[in-house]
Amino acid sequence: MNLEIAGNVQGFKQQDGILTIKTAEAEARVYIYSPTIIRVSISKNFNPDDPSFAVIRQPLADFDFDESSANIDITTPALKLSIQKSPLRFNFFTAAGNSLSEDDARFGTNWQGERVICYRRLFEGERFIGLGEKTGNLDRRSAAYVNWNTDAPNHTPESDPLYKTFPFFIGLHSGLTYGLFLDNTHKSYFDFGASTDEETSWFGADGGDLNYYFFGAQGVAKIIEDYTWLTGRMEMPPLWSLGYQQCRWSYMSADEVLNIAQTFRKKQIPADVVYCDIDYMDDFKIFTWNKKTFPKPKQMLDKLKAMDFKLVTIVDPGIKVEEGYKEYDEGIEQDYFAKYPDGENYTGYVWPGRCHFPDFFREEVREWWGAAFTALTQPGVEGFWNDMNEPAAWGQNIPWIVKFGDKFMPEVRNAYGMQMARATYDGTRKIMGNKRPFVLTRAAYSGTQRYSAVWTGDNTGTDAHMLLGQRLVNSLGITGMSFIGVDIGGFSGNPTPELMVRWNSLGVYTPMFRNHAIQGSKMREPWEWGKNNEQIIKKDIEQRYKLLPYLYSSFYQSTQTGLPVSRTLAIEHSFDGNVFDERFQNEFMFGDAILVTPVESTKLTEDVYLPQGSWYRLSSDKFYEGEQIVNVQAPLTDLPVFVKAGGIIPMQSVVQSTNEKGDGILRIHIWNGREANSFIYYEDDGVSYDYEQGVYYKRVISFNPIEKSLSLSLVEGSFKSRFMQLRFVLHGFDGVKLQEEIVENKNGEIEVKL
Ligand code: MIG
C-alpha cells in the first residue's frame, strides 16, 4: 500500500473567493463563509460541480491573506487560519492567538489509495461531543466511530454504526470551543484518541475529498447556530405532531386503528396521532391500501378526523417487482430505479419480496416519488414515515457496483435516506397546499433537519436502552436535529410495567413523543398496564399537553437559532466536568427552563447534578442551589424534573388533542430567581405556512428581579392568540400577592408588579 502525505506547497493563487494551494500530491482549497466559518477542502481530484447535500450557503466572494516565508495566514475578526507551507498543514487559532485545532505536524492529511485521513493534534484534556446518533458516552474522547448508514435491529448500547451519519463534532479544550464538519458521504471515520498515545485524533473517509468546515465561534450554542446556518434549520412542525403519538407494527385493520383512537377518547387520555405500519398496504406495495383490511381509507380518515386524530403511514423505498403495480410500471418505463453499471435494475429483497429502489439522487425521481403521495393524502393522511432507507435490503449488503445517480453506492449511501426524506417532504408539501406535512425518517445525513424529524430506530425495552435513547437524542441535538423521537417502551422485547411508566414519563420531555412496538410484542397502549399505571401514564401525557405552549415556542427557537429542544448540559456548561460524569451525562435541558434527569425504572431515588444557577423541583417547588449533587426522590409518579430559577414556562389547560382550544387561559409560570431572564413566546395556527407571511403571534416575556416585574412586550405578527386571557402563576415568591392574577390577552405591552 502506498502512503502519500501532503507535502510542500508548490504554488498558490486566489480567484473567485477561493485560495488554491498546490502540493505534489494534491490541491487544497480554502473558502471563508463567515468570520467564524472557514472551509478547507483537500483533494487529488476535485469535482468541478462541488456538490453538497448538506450545505445551503455560499462562501464570501473575496478575502485577504498574508504571506510570509513559512506561512499563509488568513485572519477574520474571530479566527486565524495559519497555513504552514513546508509541509502543508492547517492550524486554527482564535483571534487572540490561542490554538484551537492543529494538523498533526508529522502526518497532516494523507492518502492510502483513495482513503484520505487527517491526523490532528490531541490537546491535553480535550473532550469531544457530537457525531449525532452515536452510542457511548457524551464525551467521545477515547472512542472511535464509523459512519455507514445501517439497518441496526437488536443494536446494543455499544453498537456502531447505526442508521444516521452526522460527521460533525465539537472539540472542547483549554476553555475554548471549535467545531468541525467533514462534508463527505463516503464511509467515514472519527477517532478521538481511542488507539493513539494521547497524541492524535483523526478523521477521514474511504474516498472523496477531505472537505471540512471549521467553526471557531466561542461557545457551543454559537457553534450550533453556525452549523445550522450552514446546513439549514427545521421549519415549524405541525402542532399535532407534538402531541402524543401511538404507533405499533401494526394495527392490522381500519377497525383496529379506529378502536385505538376511540379508546383514547373514551378514557380521556390525550393523544393526536395513530400510525399505520407496513400492514396497511396491499402486499407491502408502497402507495396502496389493503383492500380487505383497509377497504375505505377515506372513511377511516374521516372518522379519525371527527375524533381529532391524525394518521401517519409508513413508506419504504423498496418498490415491489410486479407488473400492473403502478409505481413499478412507471419506474420501469421512466427508468427511475438504481442500477448495475450495465443498466440492469438492481433487485434486492425486502418486505414485498423482490424490489427495485428509487434513485432519489435524481430530481425527476424525487418529483415522481413526491407526487405519488396523493394515494395517501387524498384520503387525508398528513404524516409520512420513511423507513428502511439506509437503504436496507435483506442481507444488508447492496453491492458496491450499484449506481445511484452518477455515483456508486459507497460514495452516496450515507445520503440515500436524506434524499428520500427530501423527496417525501418536497412532494407532500406541494400536494398538501398550504398545510404542513409531518415527515419522519430513520436514515439521515447532515442537513436532514430541513426536511424531516428522525427517530432512533429499533431499540429494546430495557433501562439501558432508555438511557441510551436519551444520549442519542441529546447528541443528535448537537448536530442540528431538534425533532427527535425514540420508541417509548422499546421496540423489541417487552418492558416491565415499571419501565413502561418511567419511559413514558421521560417521553413527555422528548421532542417527539411516540410509543411504538414490534410485531408479536405485548400490546403497549397506556391502558395495557393495569388501572394504577394507566392513571400515571395518563397524568404524564396530560403534563405534555399542558406544556405545549412552552414546547411550541421551544421549537420556534430551533427554527431561529438551531438550538435543539433537548439539550445536553454540555451545551451551556461545556467546561463543567460533572456534566460528563457517567452518572450525570444523560441529564438535559428541555428548552430554556427545564432540566430533566432520566432515571432507571428500578431506582426510586437518584443522585442528580444541578449545574450553575439555582433550581426548583417542578413537582414541589423545593429549592436547590446549583453546582452540587443532590439525592432526590424519584418515584414512578414523579420523574426528577427541575426548573431553573428565573425560568418562565407558559402552559395551557389539559386538552384531549391539539385541536381543542381548552379554557382559553395561557398560564405564565415564573420561578423566582436572582437574575433577569426572558422567554420568547411564539404561537401560530399550527397547521399552515401562513406564518411565513407574518401570521404569527410573538412576544417577549421578561422577568426583572430588581424592578420586581414581569413584562410582556408588544405582540409582533398578525395572528390572534388562541388564549383570551393570561394568568400569572408565581413560584418561590414568598408572600407576594398579585393585584391582577388574570389579565386580558391584549396586544399592547403588559407589566405586572411582583
Ligand atoms: O424490518 O415496518 O425501524 O419501526 O415497525 C423492519 C416495520 C421494518 C423497522 C422500523 C420499525 C418498523 C418496522 N421496520
Automatic annotation (TrEMBL):
Recorded coiled-coil stretches: none
Identification of the protein by name: DUF4968 domain-containing protein
Family affiliation: Belongs to the glycosyl hydrolase 31 family.
Lineage, top ranks: Bacteria, Pseudomonadati, Bacteroidota, Sphingobacteriia, Sphingobacteriales
Record-annotated Glycoside hydrolase family 31 TIM barrel domain positions: 235-553
Molecular-function annotations in GO: carbohydrate binding; hydrolase activity, hydrolyzing O-glycosyl compounds
Domain Glycoside hydrolase family 31 N-terminal positions: 28-191
UniProt keywords, alphabetically: Glycosidase, Hydrolase
